[in-house]
Amino acid sequence: MGIGNGTIHDFLNGAVYTEVLHCALKLRLFERMGDDRLTEPALCDRMKVDSATIAPMLHLLAEMGVLLRYEDRFWNSDDAKKYLRPGQPEYLGLHVEHLLESVIPRIRLKPQEILSPKNPPPTPEVRLSCDRSEKF
Questions:
Q1: Cβ distance 66 to 77 under 8 Å?
Q2: Mind listing the pLDDT tens digit of every residue in the chain (136 residues)?
Q3: SS3 per-residue string spanning 41-59
Q4: Is 27 helix (H, G, I), strand (E, B) or coil?
Q5: Cα distances (Å, whole numbers) of residue 92 to 41, 72, 84, 95
Q6: Phi, psi values for residue 120, rounded to 5°
Q7: Distance between CA atoms of 99 and 97, rounded to whole angstroms?
Q8: How far apart are CA 60 and CA 80, in angstroms?
Q9: Confidence (pTM)
Q10: d(CA 1, CA 3)
Q11: In Å, how far are 16, 54, 112, 120 from 117, measured between CA atoms?
Q12: Alpha-carbon distances of 77 from 49, 61, 92, 96, 97, rounded to whole Å
């Protein structure tokens, strides 16, 4: 029994969601939004950023449920207020930063390093089989 297509998509989406949360935290988006319900242009003006830069992130954060959206206004979900605004007792922003700035760079595999001259790709002569019936 495999993990399935849905689980693979969850893994992929998780990586994207973490990157988007990290970017929003670095921009202090949740903090700057406060308790207001803002249009995209009003939020961009408040943050001093270009709409083309932030619009995809706002829509993805709304899709994730971190921001709420009705018509043309966005606002922080209760979870964003609780976990993603500095100063809150259960703030998780430092955890997201730690993952993306310390942990992931150390474990991220780089194919160019794996396939370096010290570790060339397997050649046809190299046996990679685990078939126990083969005789050596």
A1: yes
A2: 677 778 888 888 888 888 899 999 999 999 999 999 999 999 999 999 988 888 999 999 999 999 999 999 999 999 999 999 999 999 998 888 888 777 776 666 666 666 666 655 555 544 444 444 444 3
A3: HHHHHHHCCCHHHHHHHHH
A4: coil
A5: 27, 28, 6, 5
A6: -65, 155
A7: 5
A8: 14
A9: 0.71
A10: 7
A11: 32, 42, 10, 5
A12: 22, 10, 15, 18, 20
3-class DSSP state for residue 82?
helix
Closest CA to 49 of 80, 28, 71: 28
Query: In this structure, are residues 64 and 58 in contact, taking their beta carbons and an 8 Å threshold?
Result: no
Name, in order, each residue with C-beta under 8 angstroms of 68's C-beta and a sequence gap of 6 or more.
Answer: 62, 74, 75, 76, 77
Half-sphere exposure of 19 (CA within 13 A, CB side): 10
Do the beta carbons of residue 87 and residue 94 sit within 8 Å? no
Tokens of 80: 């964003």
